[in-house]
Amino acid sequence: MTPRMTDEEALALLGSRDLLDVGRRAHEVRLRLVPGDLATFIVDRNINYTNVCVSGCAFCAFHCGPGSAEAYVLSRHDIFAKIQETLDLGGTAVMLQGGLHPDLDIAYFEALFRGIKERFDITIHSLSPPEIVYISNLSHLSVRETLERLHEAGLDSLPGGGAEILVDRVREQVAPGKANTGAWLEVMREAHRLGIPGTATMMFGSVETLEERVAHMRAIRDLQDETGGFRAFIPWTFQPGHTRLEGVIEQATGVDYLTMLAVSRLYLDNIANIQASWVTQGLKIGQVALRFGANDLGSTMIEENVVAATGLRVQANRDDLVHAIRTAGFTPAQRRTDYSLVQVFG
Questions:
Q1: pLDDT per residue over 167-222, tens digit each?
Q2: Does residue 2 sit within a domain?
Q3: Nearest of 132, 105, 134 to residue 188 by alpha carbon
Q4: How many beta carbons lie within 10 A of that of residue 48, not counting itself?
Q5: Which of 1, 64, 104, 297 has the least CB density, counted as fewest CB within 10 Å?
Q6: Domain count, the chain
Q7: CATH number for position 31
Q8: Where are the beta strands (DSSP E) in 171-295?
Q9: Cα three-residue angle 106-111-234, rounded to 5 degrees
Q10: Which residues pair with 296 in a beta bridge?
Q11: Which residue range is the domain that position 163 belongs to?
Q12: Residue 61 belongs to some domain of the structure
């Protein structure tokens, strides 16, 4: 049995800059954990149901405060129209995410999810842990009660948003109004216990140290050892444009991204799927990522507003991802959120 990578070994690799060697090692592990030459993607849509948020994160260019002239809450009609368009494009899931809105309690989401499930055959992969914590507090419920009710209403799985870096020193600087490390992990722990799987993310390249990136991965690996509920890990680079951190930090490079991705594959030996973040890095780096430990190219991103608010706008359709995967030397396959296959493009 291959010995588990230690924190010290992960830290040494993050600081080594030996990009090709760490990439080679990560690809070998990828082939062991996910054998074969399939590289997957999903056709889904991010629906930002509101941009109102009381958190005020330093890294976010999307949110606005209650009462702002730019504030919105999407109507049911608009949400349903977006879902129908997703299905028409061959999509299988929607990811509803928004800000921490002081007027949207659990009754709003129960009615919304039930309305979606009554009308559409689609997976609801929605609400990040900070949203769950906020909804539970607003509704005077425990996190478990909140998850139970949302699951009964139609919530299928949880995205790993709002993780940023799971170290409170970092969170206190970039997201002081959002759920802390323990709360984020507890939402995922309770969700997994209730049979609600999820993904884990890491937004890196803001104010964290390399040691804190390793601490983040350790928190994810430890929880996965306990629950087995994470389907995938998705690291992505912070985009500072139009945020309070613009000009304050040095933006992470493609080399930083590929190194972090490869080390996450080596360290997170209990998570089968590692997703490449082409949305922040572009499709060409996404293709390279498939040789650096990633086995999945993520979403077509029919709609994406949060990263776009930083000034980085990217878009790709199903044909674009099929072409990117094929020209990278892999066989493209469309998947669902649970990684079951919809179609293989031979």
A1: 999 999 888 878 999 999 999 999 999 999 999 999 999 899 999 999 999 999 99
A2: no
A3: 132
A4: 19
A5: 1
A6: 1
A7: 3.20.20.70
A8: 198-204, 230-237, 273-274
A9: 65
A10: 40, 275
A11: 7-344
A12: yes
